[in-house]
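Now read these lines:
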Amino acid sequence: MKLEELKKKLKGVIIVNTTPFNKDGSMDLGGYRNNLRWLLEKTVGKDFIFNPLGSAGEFYSMSDDECKAVMKATVEEVNGKLPVFVGAGRPGTQETIKMCQYAESVGADGVQVILPYYFVPTEEGAYLHYKAIAESIKIAVMVYNNPGPTGCWIKPPLMAKIAKVPNIIACKENTLNVTQYIEMKKAIDPNDMTLFCGLGEQFYSYEAMFGCAGFVTSGANFMPDWSYSIYQIAEARDFAKVDQLLNNMALYREFFDRITTKRPHIGIGNNAAPMYLSIVKHAMDMVGLRGGEVRLPITGLTTEEKVELEIVLKKLNIIS
């Protein structure tokens, strides 16, 4: 897909596709393909973007060969029906470039590149990192500005500079501060870069008031219709109805928040143990998809938590 055509499709719901693993730790690529086929039926004619190998895809626990297999499988299954931005970020620039070049070779529309992690770069280092990546490929680049796991955040003036690199056309913005989001949106020329809310339906409901193009979610892996309803109604600026839809999911949100915060963890700030991966994967299993296991060091739900989630999903009519 050419960049100008792709830019027109940068809106709606970005699904961070999960990667199913078997109990022995191996990857279930067949199950992954089946999940994609189900999602493609649900998303026909709608503003969706597929994002394999993001945080919910557990790329950090996968080998390069496994990541490449997922990239190839996604492009083959989607077959041009929707844009595909594959996660390709690595801690260093050279290894990131290699993964981005592979993504281009198999036909991905773009790559999502998380901030360098382990060592926090200077502003110049961050700029040169993204510039070098973009210049190494012809496909699109989406910056993943996520301070939680990386310990750094690209500020609005620097993001505006990065956005001037011709094929860096989108940003998945994960700031927890709506004021920072507004400042980011003001700083970026919309002709250069499209800004997405990286924190799901709830945060999008706030940011949509300021013209946010869409949001990133893992929940759409098993309930894409609900996620898309939030997007459509917010686009129509019926925020009272958006609030109603969010309130209708209060049981799930309460369970989600409690499970992701109750366990002791070693994270600092908002970099807490991502129990949401276990919730989403088990919910996928319950609706008949292939959620599968999480990989260590992430841990799964307890038997009691699985029973509680089943009750929640039944009350919400997500399963019968």
Remarks:
- The chain has a mean pLDDT of 95.
- The domain at 3-237 is CATH 3.20.20.70 (TIM Barrel).
- The chain has one domain: 3-237.
- The first helix runs from residue 3 to 8.
